Structure formats: structure tokens, C-alpha cells
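Recall from the previous lesson that a structure prediction takes nothing but the amino acid sequence as input. Here we apply that procedure to NADH dehydrogenase, putative from Thermotoga maritima. The sequence below is the only information supplied.
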Amino acid sequence: MKERSIWERIADNLRSRSIWMLHYCTGCGAVELPPSMTSRFDMERFGIAPMATPRQADILLITGYLNTKTLRRVIYTYEQMPDPKYVVGFGSCTINGGIYFDSYATVNRLDYYIPVDVYIAGCMPRPEAILEAFNYLMEKIRKGEADGWKRYRENYEWYKQNQIRSLGEVYVHDEFHE
Ligand code: SF4
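The prediction returns the following C-alpha cells.
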């Protein structure tokens, strides 16, 4: 990995302590977010706060299973977020499809379509596991190792081919993609 300048290291350190998250509540894992965010586990003490729009968010949370229709919206959302940006996949469904592994309409591996920086195993992951994953992500950001957004740029053709294979040609000919 390229040596970071002092300014890049300072910026990464600050970024790791100020994370605005966009939670795309696709699956049942989302019910663990309210206890993680409120008084008992209190994510905000780590500088993690919810954000309503992709253009101001640092992290995209995919909180469970994704069907192919939803995948399209997730890709639009991810592409609207500014770099550097990070993705967290909640639960088995984002890793391998979970209990929907053989469903015709469910995406089995999220990281074929967008780069995932941290996965949280479990069905569903408890708030302790969510906070542990965020601590791990903060450490990766601080060290400059959370580089999914760079991989997306460098391997864009590979991601695009996977997206088209799942969504069909219509994906690249709609109003968002000329
Ligand atoms: S991993 Fe379990 S809790 Fe999470 S979305 Fe899938 S079925 Fe629901």
C-alpha cells in the first residue's frame, strides 16, 4: 500500500471519528439499529450519527437481504455518495443469501455488486456485534485500509458486468445511466 502523507493520516484519523451513516433498511437486521443508536448502546459516543441523504453520508448500511429490485436502488444510492465511502453488510443474507440462499429473487453476495468493507455475521447480529464491527471499521479507516471505494473505481467494469447480469440491460439504459 502507498505510504500516506501526514495530511492524509490526519484526515483519515478525523474521518474515523465522524461517521455519518445512511441505513438502507432492506431486511430484518434493521431492528437491531434502534437499540444500537439509542441510550443503551449509544453509537453517537463514537461519533456515529444517522444521515438522511446519500450525498452527505460516509457509510452505507445494508441491513439484510436484498432482492434484485432493491439492488438497483442500492447501487444508485452508493454511486451518489462522495468518496471516500464505506459499506457495511449486516447479517448472513448479505454474505451468502442466508436463509434465502436459493431464492430466485434474492442477491446472494453483496460484494459482487458493490464493495463491502465490513460484514457482520449473524442472523440477526446483536447490537454488541454491530458496535464491534463499527470499531473495526473505524480502525480500518484510521489506518487507511478501508479502501472499498477505491476498488470500486479500479474494478468498475467487473462490478458493472455483475450488476448488468443480475439486473438486465435495462439497468444501463434508464434515466440514471445514459
Ligand atoms: S440475516 Fe437473518 S435477520 Fe438478517 S436479513 Fe437475513 S434473515 Fe433477516
